[in-house]
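Purpose: get a first structural picture of the assembly so the mutagenesis plan has something to point at.
Setup: three entries, given in the order below. No constraints added.
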Amino acid sequence: MHFVKKCPECGSINLFLNKDKGEVICKDCGLVVEDKMVEFGQEWREFDSDDSNKLRRTGAPMTYTQYDQGLGTEIGQKADLFRLEGKDRNKFFRLRKWQYRISTAIERNLKLALAELKGVSSSLKLPKSVEEEAARIYTLAVQRGLVRGRSMESVVAGALYAACRRHEVPRTLDELSEASGIEKKEIGRTYRFVTRELGITILPSNPADYIARFACSLTLSAETQSRAVEILEKAQKVELTSGRGPTGIAAAALYVSALLHGEKRTQREVADVAGVTEVTIRNRYKELLEKLNLEKDIKKTKKKRK
DNA sequence: AAGACGAAAGTGGTTGA
DNA sequence: TCAACAACTTTCGTCTT
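Result (structure tokens, whole complex):
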């Protein structure tokens, strides 16, 4: 268990440890700060009503994959209204009407969106924790009005993509695109927008995270796989990886590794599963050979073959 | 004939003035 | 806001197996 010093959502250092529940809570935004990323049943206190009986919850844990979790605020209770007259009073009614409209709109939107999210998530076979995270992100996005001017689906896809990245189970934009039916560009755009607006920090994705999945769909042996990861590690040290697309690097490492183990796959095959072109693989491949002195190894295995 | 290689031109996104 | 820039793609011709 490591302790987080700053709230990942709002950056506040005003954290509060609730020993009874064993949770660390951000006092500013109400986020339950996770010690690991995989954490179920987070809750935003902020959005709860003040009812004390609601604070003690029983029953099923609250989850962001359900659309209604006590969202929204009611403006103006009866008592306040009697103190207002004329213009002020009208203003109050107007505000209340809008508040009502907005909150019901949010609920409707969430209901639809979360259904969509579940669909996409399950077609990508994503773990439940990622789905939760995505739902959380989406909920936040809706509340901040970030969906305006964007299609609901694209924001869902963006949220899912972000959630995948945070949980280090990366899917490529292509996969998300296929599963959601949203254009790659669009997902990327909303993804960037949403994460920036919400101040979500995303670690640059690690090429090694892709290896297992790519290797699997290429039916490569476990040795080849771990060799590829080794190559990746070396590549990181020589700073071959910074700035490049992680999928390209992963693909190249896998390609080299397959060659070394006599499990040759064509560049085309590798390129397809990694969602990059052969050219990119070639470039990365070339760089890998140069910087890591792998030429001899390749030649050796070639001779062996003969 | 298929795969590997490389050059050249084009695309979308980031950065810095 | 615009131009320069890097990474990546597309396309195509040539070489290798």
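Residues 1-57 of chain A form a domain with the N-terminal domain of TfIIb fold (CATH 2.20.25.10).
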